[in-house]
Amino acid sequence: MFFFGLGKLFYVVILFINSLAILSEDRFLARIGWGRMQADAAFGATYDNTSVKAKTINLIASVRTVMRIPLIVINTIVIIYELILG
């Protein structure tokens, strides 16, 4: 029973990381104002990189960059596991 819960939690984490990895910055995130390339700031304005929004944007970009190859491997292992053991 204990491992059954951990297996479902593992699937949820994998699906969440997959969803972050496939978000398109140009097509989706920029439309809602969450793109890294914001419009030019007004004179004297600076980009606040300490806000929660900026840190979340950087986290999404980092997940897309760092987890690309590991996600391919992990997804392949999960698919093979599901095909063999159902």
Overview of the molecule:
Helix 1 crosses helix 3. The two termini are 17 Å apart. The model has no long low-confidence stretch (mean pLDDT 78). This protein has a domain of 35 residues. By secondary structure, the protein is mainly alpha-helical. It contains four helices and no strands.
User: Oligomeric state of the chains?
Assistant: single chain
Residues in helices, as a percent range: 55-70%
Shape: elongated
Low-confidence stretches: none
Radius of gyration: 18 Å
Please state roughly what percent of the residues sit in beta strands, choosing from under 5%, 5-15%, 15-25%, 25-35%, 35-45% or over 45%. Answer: under 5%
Mean of residue pLDDT values: 78
Order of helices and strands: HHHH
- Distance separating the two termini: 17 Å
Topology:
Layout: H1 2-22, H2 25-29, H3 52-66, H4 68-85
Main attributes of the structure:
86 residues; 4 helices; mainly alpha
Summarize it.
With 86 residues, the protein is mainly alpha-helical.
